[in-house]
Design brief:
The protein is an alpha+beta fold. The protein contains 17 helices and 46 strands. It holds the Pfam family PH_FAN.
Length: 993
């Protein structure tokens, strides 16, 4: 088995984390190096020399040799092999002729394309490929670089400018480096040959930085109507131009970077072709105007489909328990402009427990939990009194500059502190190639908790990693490397040193109640999602994101931090500063000490509903009070709200409540060779007769009471998809009648079959793709057939040449001819394939489910799309059903079932599958009941009055439930093997569908 250390050796390569934080890497050259660092000065090592803003880094091709960093400020002399010395002064590099000086080195200075560097120190990195503190040797060293392909003069022209910058005061040094970067970006031309499609329309091209924790990399950002491209100034990536397809973009947010909204973070969906490093693109532009232009252009591209869930809905969903505490905190951090790519604004999570010493953790004991109503610095009263005394005695120019806590609850140092095992490169980058002193490293959960309770300078909260566990994972965004306490394990076998108590630092020491790292994080997540925390989390939100974050409320809540962590004061704008030095100092301080999140709430945050309140609240939503309409109809201007509000008022007088019954197995019969795709009652025979269709192309008349097939009809060689049947009279006055079956098929064709004679009345191609569902009107003139299809349309066809309606009865047209075709009246087009449909003719309401996870609500008479709902998972809608009053809609994807209050678009009921075997396949919905057919052959029955699962029917062993139907006190379940299972539904009252 390969050790972790060996694996690290094989993967060793130059990274921006080998440099100082935010140092810029420009370019590199192929060289052969000799140096006095080697015992054998004649040894030649092939590699590349990296030209960076503060240093030169030699990266050998042989990963067993260390990388060597030479700081410009430690270089005393340049020489070329022609004995020309380049004297380094404070402001320039001057070439002069000099005689060969004696040297202790055995380096042979040949007349070639080479450069000699003499310096007072050199830093060795990744010796033998190990992750460990860098070793700096303080002695006079001589490095001989022979350039393989390039001219030494090219290198000197760049290095000379960068060297001169190190001789300047720090503010001027930063300004000069920025000027060098801008100059090189102007010369960088985007390689348009790298476009995905030469027909792409170029919308935007600007200089930008890509931001990652502690590092930034300059380049050019190019936006087209299909993709976003970033071309780096250097070759740090395997491909200099990285492509991000806008069609996979699911989230974009503006970000605050150095006080200004010049950042934009884009998140893309992943698949097997896209590696994880392309998941997030965080760009920083020169100014807010350029950033806003880029942001607006991305949003206006037709291929971009984002989850634009309203902020208020997320809070409401959290209140109702639809999303977890963890997901809601992640959401608030995102809205509060916190990012995993910015260590000065890293997502912040609370300490929720206070018990880290007991052998057992009792989550039912309130004493196990931290007081979430107080900031971490105010939990210890004695410390708080000391800090308040210091606050009172502070002598500062203005009161608003006074603070309780000189430290902050989240900053780059704390992020590096917690993640030093998972990302040791962060620590080496931030701390100049060293890990912190052993006694200050993250060593023990108990010790860290004691420190945040007692130390005047330690008020840090936690990171999301403390709660990331695969046992709770329901968010595809979670990085698998952060899960299950990986950050607590010394997975790279790093030597962090020995503490003062002679304990060697390895894995983090856990509380006694945790069996291991995975168990620790799992129990931390259980605590976060516990009822106690759920009832108090809003108090902590008030402190971090809410009305107690700043101002007088923060002062009253003992929640005051250094004034610069809140951003630049209004009377001290960065852009108005006369001195660049002051601006740079201010930015440096904020980037090192962290920033307060954006304030999201100006009033107290609502409390999460208890489990009992959730049940009561959902019961009220599902059972409308007939005496008190919940929303008035006056002054409604939105057409959808007006349309649906009429439905609510119309339905109040007829709304009834029914008790849920129980199920008794009756019979099973295999009717088809392949999957059953539709079950409907026979319209002209007793209720013991059903019509079924299957993927085998047959329509069968099934006698339930005898468990056998009465008659069958071959319809098509292709699978059948949907069926509706009606009873038709031959004349208005006559009693003679027959049954017609309307059947949709994979071959895009509608088949109309006379079930009395067994003959085909009509077959007509209605769509350009599979017909997925159909519906026949009973009140319109003319009678209409409504069909949906994978061609992304719903079409309405006139049946006036075939039948008409008289007193709610269908009647054949006297002059009907079998050669007649159905004329199309109108159609509705959508952005994605239509997968399912349900209509309520009495309310003129049509619901259409689509492949992209959207549900479109349309006016049945006009074809107008009234509202669009979006499934949170964006998975295809497999089935949907409107309640008979038109107020609620139930729909399923393979992963979730959702019940929506249509007027408010609020999810009032959701349930997700726990495994692939239990993914959802079919749906039945009535006013008081949901039945979900599962992949594993079982059915879950939910009582919507109490919002609980009351039955699990084991219909078939591991054979998917493809369709569910109800008729006259019986439920029928079609399965993937062609069988129909019958269950008697025993209830005190007839089921209202």
């Amino acid at each position: 088995m390969t050790s972790r250390r060996e694996s690290a050796v094989r993967q060793h390569s130059f990274s921006l984390y080998n440099l100082s934080a935010n140092e810029i890497y420009f370019q590199d050259y192929a060289v052969i190096c000799q140096s006095t660092l080697n015992e054998d000065h004649q040894t030649k090592v092939k590699g590349r020399v990296k030209i960076c803003s503060k240093s030169l880094v030699f990266v050998p091709n042989d990963i067993r040799s260390p990388m060597i960093k030479i700081l410009y400020k430690q270089i005393s002399k340049f020489e070329d092999s022609g004995k020309n010395e380049f004297s380094l002064t404070d402001s320039t590099i001057v070439s002069s002729s000099s005689s060969s000086s004696s040297s202790s080195s055995n380096i042979n200075k040949k007349k070639s394309n080479s450069l000699i560097i003499i310096c007072s120190s050199a830093t060795l990195m990744a010796i033998n490929g190990r992750i460990e503190p860098y070793t700096t040797t303080y002695d006079t060293h001589r490095f001989y670089f022979e350039f393989v392909y390039s001219n030494v003069e090219d290198c000197l022209s760049v290095v000379g400018q960068l060297y001169r910058s190190t001789t300047l005061p720090f503010p001027e040094q930063v300004m000069m480096i920025e000027s060098i970067v801008q100059g090189r970006l102007k010369m960088l031309k985007f390689d348009f040959k790298q476009l995905k499609d030469l027909n792409e329309k170029i919308l935007f091209e600007q200089d930008a930085y890509v931001i990652k924790p502690l590092i930034k990399n300059p380049g050019k950002c190019l936006l087209t109507n299909q993709c976003c491209y970033f071309q780096a100034l250097n070759n740090i990536n395997e491909q200099q131009i990285v492509q991000y397809e806008l069609g996979t973009l699911y989230k974009i947010a503006k970000r605050r970077y150095k006080f200004h909204y010049i950042g934009c973070e884009l998140q893309f969906k992943l698949d097997d072709q896209r590696p994880s490093q392309k998941k997030i693109l965080y760009l920083v532009f020169a100014n807010e105007s350029i950033c806003s232009t880029f942001y607006d252009l991305v949003l206006t591209q037709p291929c971009v489909h984002l989850d634009l869930t309203p902020f208020e809905n997320m809070t409401l969903r959290w209140q109702q328990g639809t999303i977890s505490n963890y997901d809601y905190l992640l959401y608030l951090n995102d809205r509060g402009e916190r990012s995993f790519h910015d260590c000065s604004q890293y997502p912040v999570f609370p300490w929720v427990l206070r018990n880290y010493t007991s052998s057992n953790l009792d989550l039912n004991d309130p004493q196990s939990f931290r007081d979430l109503s107080r900031p971490i610095g105010a939990l210890n009263i004695e410390r708080l009194e000391r800090l308040k005394e210091r606050y009172t005695n502070m002598s500062l120019p203005s009161d608003h500059q006074r603070f309780l806590y000189g430290s902050f609850y989240s900053n780059p140092g704390f992020v590096v502190y917690f993640l030093c095992r998972l990302h040791p490169q962060f620590s080496l980058c931030l701390n100049g190639g060293r890990f912190d002193h052993s006694d200050r490293l993250f060593h023990s959960i108990v010790d860290t908790w004691k420190s945040v309770l007692t130390s005047d300078s330690d008020v840090k909260e936690l990171l999301p990693e403390f709660y990331m566990t695969s046992k709770f994972i329901d968010d595809e965004d979670d990085d698998e490397h952060r899960l299950d306490g990986e950050f607590l394990i010394n997975q790279f076998d790093i030597d962090f040193g020995i503490r003062h108590d002679e304990v060697r630092i390895g894995n983090v020491l856990l509380p006694p109640w945790a069996e291991n790292e995975r168990d620790f994080v799992y129990k931390m997540r259980l605590a976060l999602e516990s009822e106690h925390v759920s009832q108090h989390l809003h108090e902590w939100i008030d402190l971090i994101f809410g009305y107690k974050q700043r101002g007088d409320e923060a002062r009253r809540a003992d929640n005051l931090f250094h004034y610069l962590t809140y951003g630049v004061p209004e009377d001290h704008s960065v852009t108005a500063m006369e001195q660049y030095e002051e601006q740079l100092s201010l930015e440096t301080q904020i980037l090192e000490f962290g920033q307060v999140p954006k304030q999201l709430f100006l009033k107290p945050h609502p409390r999460k509903l208890t489990e009992q309140e959730l049940k009561n609240d959902q019961e009220k939503k599902l059972n409308v009070d007939i005496d008190q309409p919940s929303t008035p109809t006056d002054n409604i201007t939105n057409p959808m709200e007006e349309h649906l509000m009429r439905l609510r008022v119309q339905s109040l007088s007829s709304f009834e409540h029914h008790e849920l019954g129980h199920f008794e197995f009756d019979s099973v019969c295999r009717l088809h060779k392949t999957a059953v795709r539709g079950i409907v009652p026979h319209p002209s025979l007793p209720s013991t007769h059903l019509l079924t269709i299957g993927e085998d192309g047959f329509l069968r008349n099934y006698m339930v009471n005898k468990s056998k097939i009465d008659t069958f009809y071959f319809i098509s060689l292709r699978p059948l998809t949907c069926i509706k049947s009606i009873q038709v009279h031959f004349s208005i006055d006559g009693n003679e009648q027959c049954a017609l079956a309307f059947v949709g098929c994979y071959d895009h064709t509608l088949y109309i079959h006379n079930l009395q004679t067994g003959t085909s009345i009509l077959s007509q191609v209605l769509h350009d793709d599979i017909i997925t569902d159909l519906f026949i009107t009973n009140r319109s003139t003319p009678t209409l057939l409504c069909t949906s299809s994978h061609d992304a349309t719903v079409r309405f066809w006139s049946l006036e040449n075939l039948i008409f309606v008289n007193e709610d009865n269908y009647v054949f047209q006297p002059n009907y001819h079998s050669t007649s075709i159905l004329p199309m009246q109108y159609d509705i087009s959508f952005d994605s394939s239509c997968t399912c449909m349900h209509a309520l003719e009495e309310h003129c309401l049509l619901a259409v489910g689509c492949q992209d996870g959207t549900i479109n609500l349309c006016n049945f008479q006009t074809g107008e799309i009234l509202k669009q709902l979006t499934s949170p998972s964006s998975l295809p809608i497999l089935s949907l059903s409107l309640r008979s009053d038109g107020l609620f809609l139930a729909y399923i994807s393979s992963k979730a079932v959702t019940l929506v209050d249509i007027i408010s678009s609020t999810d009032v009921f959701t349930n997700t599958c726990v495994s692939d075997e239990q993914s959802f396949k079919s749906l039945f919905y009535s006013s008081q009941m949901l039945i979900l057919g599962l992949m594993n052959g079982s059915c879950d029955v939910w009582n919507l009055k109490i919002c609980e699962k009351v039955h699990t029917l084991n219909v078939n062993d591991k054979i998917s439930i493809t369709t569910i139907a109800y008729n006259d006190g019986m439920f029928f379940f079609g399965t993937d093997d062609g069988s129909v299972h019958s269950y008697v539904f025993a209830s005190r009252q007839q089921l209202s569908i």
